[in-house]
Amino acid sequence: MSDREKIVNETLAIVIEREGIKDAEVIIRPLVTDTVNYTSTLYVITVKSLGSEDLELFAKVACVGEEIRRDMAFGEIYGRERLVYGEISKIYDRIQSQSDIAENEKFVFSKFYASGDGYLQETLILENLAARGYTTYNRFVSVTWEYASAAIRELAKLHALSYAFAERDPEGFDRTMKNAMHPFDGCEGNMFQLYKNTEAIALEAAPHESREKLRDFFVRESSVEKFYKNFMPSRRPVLRNYEGLLYSNFMHKDKGWKIGKIMVDYQTLHSGSAITDLLFFITCGTDGAFRRRHYKQLIDHYYEAFADFLKKLGLDSNKLYPKEEFHDDLKESLPFGLLMAALALPMVLVEANNAPTFQADAKLSNFVAKPNEEFRRRFREFIDDYVEWGVI
């Protein structure tokens, strides 16, 4: 049994006791996927007991080494997830119940069972959604409209619930916001250096005729101050979660007439701009063909879903976040989408065997994902779009 499996067993003992399971037989298996898990080692668990249904669980154990934690304050991300499942999920569930949101329209959290907060041993145990038929999307394939519209609808609900939290309990919201500052707060310089390491890769991937424009764009937009401005809210902050929008962190299930989706990763939840979440999804999930057909439609769909869910929560989007302000913020933040394409796309699209690691003695200076042809294709399509949109 590996050290991390022993850690899982320790936290699992809490679950077994809470659930009152007698004579439990436990099966723990490493979760093998085609995704890249930079911050956690994943396991699926089956707990068997005579006369009872099997309990199907999912566990994640921290795998970020000490040097990366020091350079990037990465230890904070595990506390964020405990904050979500231990506190925020209960607040949001209560708000939805008080607002009489129908069960099939609620923003749903994966069922939480237990967590451990030991240093270098942070652990989270949740229900195993795969046992209920949920799956992840192929990260090497651009999203379909059906998938994208379902994901963006859930994102809009998450943001609307943040507004409702602030309206109903301003003091509680402010306290939560203080506990959910950007996870890299205080490490901006190191995070920016990580971004700068990717600029050369982005320039190499760009079509020759666009490289000078892209180089000028990087000079103009990629200062530490501008880079971090995009993570901060220009108006009211929301609790946002850009990493949760990655394919591997958003599980879906085809329910015939619609796609049901549940976000399962909240390690990057922090106070910030809702626009950045929207741009991050578009950056990491869509290609040029999708954007030509659906970009404006997706933007409109987000705001309509946001306004509709606010209304269900008894709030008015015209007072809290008018459509005109939303479009102004989107226009101002649009350059950030291309910066994120340079930084995030290589990490999202890298083959698992070429992925860098945050584990053990890994150093931030060596954290550069090896680009592949899918990254080059998508990044060139982003450049074409940003030229057409007049951003570069």
TrEMBL record:
Q: Where is the CHK kinase-like domain?
A: 124-312
- Per the record, the domain of life is Eukaryota
Which InterPro entries does this one have? Answer: CHK_kinase-like, EcKL, Kinase-like_dom_sf
Pfam families named among the record's database cross-references: EcKL (PF02958)
Cited PANTHER family: PROTEIN KINASE-LIKE DOMAIN-CONTAINING
Which protein is depicted?
CHK kinase-like domain-containing protein
Identify the species of origin.
Eumeta variegata
